[in-house]
């Protein structure tokens, strides 16, 4: 699975969680925080690959 695809999936899941929160149906509000953190980490990794700061997976 591509990083971009994972980011999009997580952003969609985050949107669903925010909707559940607005409808007061969210059981664990900490899910939003952890999903935001995961999205930020994935975006950082993607940016590092784009800038060439991270090598390919095969080079390790």
From TrEMBL:
It holds the Pfam family Ribosomal_L29. GO terms for molecular function: structural constituent of ribosome. The keyword Transport does not apply. Keywords: Ribonucleoprotein, Ribosomal protein. Gene3D superfamilies: 1.10.287.310. SUPFAM superfamilies: Ribosomal protein L29 (L29p) (SSF46561). One of its GO terms (cellular component) is ribosome. One of its GO terms (biological process) is translation. The keyword Ribonucleoprotein applies. NCBIfam families: L29. Belongs to the universal ribosomal protein uL29 family. HAMAP family: Ribosomal_uL29. This is 50S ribosomal protein L29. It comes from marine metagenome.
């Amino acid at each position: 699975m591509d990083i971009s695809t994972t980011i999009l999936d997580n952003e969609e899941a985050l949107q669903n969680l925010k909707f559940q929160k607005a409808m007061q149906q969210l059981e664990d509000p900490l899910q939003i925080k952890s999903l935001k953190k995961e999205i930020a980490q994935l975006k950082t990794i993607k940016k590092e690959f784009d800038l060439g700061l991270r090598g390919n997976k095969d080079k390790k």
